[in-house]
């Protein structure tokens, strides 16, 4: 690849990144389904025709958003998962890192919920589902480490515990959406985390 090609490609990549952020910013303020390419063009200061020079259609923009989400969130989760020799400390760090990410990117939950609710298995929905599967796998590994260390119930079902972990975050996010502010997550975090720890440490009655 010569220098001229790189020079031409970098502005296009920068524009695509701007449009991804525009979608997420718009999603924080309105339903993702109502976002149009005209809205995106206006947000980044381009004509609608210029938007389609960077992406062939709206679906391609949405797929790029999903790819950005995976490329940004998953490294945060992976880093938090390896942040401590103590598995439950690492699990808590994942919990806090994810919620911090949501607070910084309030359009992300709306985007995810919107895509997962779609009846068709579109490339965007498949991308989001694959990311959640990867996320669940990371959680399961940390929970297995916690079980080996004797920190959680020996009868714990790690897959169910991973589902509960993600569900706890989704519950906090939904509460924040109802209250209209992602900052409302902060006061609720400690209580929800304490309940989660209690659930995975306790022996399940037969």
From TrEMBL:
Alphabetic keyword roster: DNA-binding, Transcription, Transcription regulation
Record organism: Thiothrix caldifontis
Protein's name according to its UniProt entry: Transcriptional regulator, TetR family
Entry annotated with the keyword Transcription: yes
Gene3D superfamilies: Tetracycline Repressor, domain 2
GO molecular function: DNA-binding transcription factor activity; transcription cis-regulatory region binding
Domain of life: Bacteria
Transcription regulation among keywords: yes
Domain HTH tetR-type: 13-73
DNA-binding region, residues: 36-55
């Amino acid at each position: 690849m010569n220098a001229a090609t790189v020079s031409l490609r970098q502005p296009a990549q920068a524009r695509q990144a701007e449009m991804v952020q525009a979608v997420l910013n718009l999603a924080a303020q309105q339903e993702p389904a109502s976002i149009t390419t005209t809205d995106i063009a206006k947000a980044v200061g381009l004509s609608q025709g210029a938007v389609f020079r960077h992406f062939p259609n709206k679906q391609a923009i949405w797929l790029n958003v999903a790819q950005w989400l995976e490329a940004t969130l998953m490294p945060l989760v992976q880093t938090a998962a390896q942040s401590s020799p103590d598995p439950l400390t690492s699990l808590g760090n994942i919990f806090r890192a994810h919620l911090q990410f949501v607070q910084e990117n309030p359009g992300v939950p709306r985007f995810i919920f919107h895509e997962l609710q779609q009846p068709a298995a579109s490339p965007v929905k498949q991308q989001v589902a694959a990311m959640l599967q990867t996320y669940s796998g990371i959680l399961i590994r940390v929970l297995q480490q916690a079980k080996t260390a004797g920190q959680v119930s020996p009868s714990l079902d790690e897959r169910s515990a991973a589902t509960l972990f993600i569900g706890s975050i989704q519950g906090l996010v939904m509460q924040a959406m109802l209250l209209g502010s992602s900052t409302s997550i902060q006061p609720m975090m400690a209580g929800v985390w304490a309940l989660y720890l209690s659930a995975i440490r306790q022996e399940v009655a037969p």
